[in-house]
Amino acid sequence: MDSRPLVQVRQAVKTYGSTRALSGVTLDVHSGEVVGIVGHNGAGKSTLMRVLSGLEGPDSGTIEIDGVTTPPGSGYPGVRMAYQEGSLALELTVKENIFLSSAGWMPRWRWHGPAAEQAIARLSEIFPNHSIRPADYVDDLPLADRQMVEIARATITDDLRVLILDEPTESLSGGAVEHLYNYVRKVQDAGLAIILVSHRLKEILSVCDRVAVMKDGAVVKIYPAGDVSEQGLFDAMGGEVAVEEKNDVAEKYAFDGSRPVTVRIPMAMVDGRPTEIVACEGEVIGLAGIAGQGQEKVLDRLWHRKRGDVEVSDKCAYVPGDRQRSGILPIWNVAENLSITALSRLAKRGIRQIDKEKLLVAEWVDLLNIRGGAEAEITGLSGGNQQKVIVARAFASEADTILLDDPFRGVDVHTKVELYQLIRTEAEKGRTIIWYSSENSEMQHCDRAYVLRAGRVAGELHGAEITDERMIAMSFAESEELTR
Ligand SMILES: Nc1ncnc2c1ncn2[C@@H]1O[C@H](COP(=O)(O)OP(=O)(O)OP(=O)(O)O)[C@@H](O)[C@H]1O
User: To which H or E segment does residue 275 belong?
Assistant: First the structure.
């Protein structure tokens, strides 16, 4: 490792209005090193990354990257970032996006061919199993594919020295995560400095050389990855809740099947037998399996009810994981975003009850620790805090069925534990929860889980049976129909 750090941050401060997003960060990153950044939602991680990429300058303090202290307009030379919220133009194709971010060195004429070649070469290098085509419109791609393009785009440049990955795996499936980290190790060996921001502490500990813990806008601890455990990181972030034991919840609440059916979705035949997904009042049902096997289509059928072939209550609420496209209402503040679904329930003879609305918002802001508060502009919130508002909006409604489409992307570990408990409490009140998660381990909080494969039901697991091993085994089941 070089003795002189490639990246040197000293006492960096950044404020937005009255919010002190960075309150004096000091950090070094060396060439050939992977440094992890962890911390609660709103701790300042993305702000630090934006400052490091030169997208925004600090109010005070210094940043030096590869000897450069004042970046030119395009940011620090050699520093590229894959953004948490995605930076791709949705209405353009994959190759057009690649061209736009490589305009400095890509030919200005006849660039379609080179841009397409670069896109495919890099996507295939990082994610060998991808099925993305250069002419695909980004808006038509599933979230996981968009994330892959975002990552590939960041690495396509001729002078990469520092690669910043801001929550890169939140929407990737297990296989793609593994491929990404293989690529990270490869470029690390080639001498790049990599900064990895993630809430997935296991991934951080397995990939990084050192881990920096951020709290309230500062780096409060830095550990060699081999010297700290998940619990240690959790504690350093300022944790109050212990990491939950696997299967704890599912075993405690094993379902007896005596309650009324509230949701029924006919599914395709498997081995000559009709199959369906059924949920009862008070049940938490998981839609498991490898990402992209039809789980989101099931939620879409329940939410839009276009074909009239599903049974589900009209009082349905939906929590999207893709908050940029279908989640936040950007011109409204937190309170308005949160209470919109509850207005009619809280109104009295058609007249809004402002006090009740305020109380409801205050309760949710407090319960989920939404940093920024009720009056903040939603777009000024950190990614994880925006996601909490969308979750709160669904649970604050009067819906009796809640559809969760990978809802906790970017939410920090402590809040996730609170949310798992919330789901359980709401189910006990009689709500039905249908939950898709790209994180297999989350399915262990369900009463039952249907494992989907190629749009079909490959199997059903109950309570303590919902383990990683069983879900993976079912995902690769050798049923003739499923392997076709
Ligand atoms: N453009 C902005 N305008 C106003 N406030 C902002 C802006 N960007 C960030 N903030 C505030 O700065 C603080 C730090 O936000 P940041 O996005 O850096 O957190 P984070 O650690 O990345 O969180 P997450 O884990 O949720 O992504 C938050 O309180 C956030 O509301």
Answer: strand 273-280
Answer yes or no: are the C-beta atoms of 375 and 335 closer than 8 Å: yes
Is the C-beta atom of 313 inside 6 A of ligand 1?
no
DSSP state of 441: G
Q: How far is the CA of 375 from the centre of ligand 1 (A)?
A: 15
Amino acid at 12: A
| Closest to 45 in 3D by CA, of 20, 21, 9, 79 | 21
73 shares a domain with 15: yes
Co-location of 362 and 427 in the same domain: yes
Other Cβ atoms less than 10 A from the Cβ of 245: the count is 9
Q: What is the CATH number of the domain that holds 32?
A: 3.40.50.300
Domain extent, residue 203, equals 7-236
Q: Are strands 193-197 and 79-82 parallel, antiparallel or unpaired?
A: unpaired
Nearest to 292 by CA among 421, 148, 126, 165: 148
Q: Which of 369, 382, 409 to mutate to test the pocket of ligand 1 (most atoms within 8 A of CB)?
A: 382
Structure tokens at 296: 């989101």
Ligand 1 atom closest to residue 44's alpha carbon, by position in its atom list: 18
In this structure, of 156-170, 199-213, 261-275, 318-332, the range with the lowest mean pLDDT score is 318-332
Q: What is the mean pLDDT of the chain?
A: 86
Residue 426, pLDDT score: 92
Residue 301 · residue 265 · CB < 8 Å: yes
Assess contact for 200 and 413: CB atoms under 8 A.
no
6: which DSSP letter?
A: S
Let me know whether 93 and 223 are in one domain.
yes
328 and 393 housed in the same domain:
yes
pTM for the whole thing? 0.79
Residue 247, pLDDT > 50, answer no
Cβ atoms of residues 284 and 423 within 8 Å: yes
Among 236, 266, 294, the domain-final residue is 236
Using 50, 70 and 90 to split pLDDT, how confident is the model at 204?
Answer: very high
State the total domains in the chain: 2
Task: Give the distance from CA 227 to its chain's centroid.
Answer: 27
**Is the CB of residue 212 below 6 angstroms from any atom belonging to ligand 1?**
no
Regarding whether 175 and 131 lie in a shared domain, the answer is yes
